[in-house]
């Protein structure tokens, strides 16, 4: 019923059945995995009103809900690298209890768990996951992503330089390296002292 494909590897159909509603794929050398695709192979559809919650298990850290697949959405791609959040690891580890959870080492075998459930229950789990993700971002001080952060840093530099140029920084303006060094020292000091929050006020 299910297939799994890790980016750069052969297709996996070697699913391990735990019971009628739970199964899993073993993902060897998990430390090298960036993305994984889970899909219905098309032979057996879900019963009406049902779908599958997809969980990821990293040994020693528990299960985390990644998302879902259904008859209407028969495949999904999930980014695994950097996505595991211990705070949202769920009690789903009990559902896939035939898997040994004491593996250690760099080339560990992770687990991609599939749990067939009513769609409304899956949606409730996904809503809870999104709420906890928002709460986690707020707890971390609304940490901006790398693109936004880079844009704010460059904007801060341009604003700083325009204060020395008396009319803005144009394409033909030469800036002494000593001024850039002063800006660099100042911004690094602020970041070390209070984080990147002050960059949000850069106009």
TrEMBL record:
One of its GO terms (biological process) is protein import into nucleus. This is Hikeshi-like domain-containing protein. It comes from Cyclocybe aegerita. InterPro entries: Hikeshi-like_C, Hikeshi-like_N, OPI10. One of its GO terms (molecular function) is nuclear import signal receptor activity. Residues 146-201 form the Hikeshi-like C-terminal domain. GO terms for cellular component: cytosol; nucleus. Residues 6-132 form the Hikeshi-like N-terminal domain. Belongs to the OPI10 family. It comes from the Eukaryota. Pfam families: Hikeshi-like_C (PF21057), Hikeshi-like_N (PF05603).
């Amino acid at each position: 019923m299910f297939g799994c494909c890790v980016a750069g590897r052969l297709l996996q159909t070697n699913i391990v059945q735990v019971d009628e509603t739970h199964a899993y794929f073993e993902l060897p050398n998990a430390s090298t995995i960036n993305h994984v695709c889970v899909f219905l192979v098309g032979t057996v559809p879900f019963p009406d009103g049902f779908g599958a919650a997809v969980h990821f298990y990293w040994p020693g850290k528990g299960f985390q809900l990644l998302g879902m697949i259904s008859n209407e959405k028969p495949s999904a791609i999930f980014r695994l690298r950097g996505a595991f959040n211990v705070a949202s690891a769920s009690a789903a580890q009990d559902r896939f209890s035939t898997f040994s959870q004491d593996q250690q080492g760099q080339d560990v075998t992770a687990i991609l768990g599939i749990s067939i459930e009513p769609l409304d229950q899956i949606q409730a789990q996904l809503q809870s996951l999104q709420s906890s993700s928002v709460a986690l971002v707020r707890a971390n001080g609304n940490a901006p992503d790398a693109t936004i952060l880079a844009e704010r840093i460059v904007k801060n530099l341009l604003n700083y330089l325009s204060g020395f140029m008396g009319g803005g920084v144009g394409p033909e303006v030469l800036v002494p390296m000593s001024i850039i060094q002063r800006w660099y020292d100042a911004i690094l000091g602020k970041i070390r002292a209070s984080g990147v929050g002050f960059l949000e006020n850069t106009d």
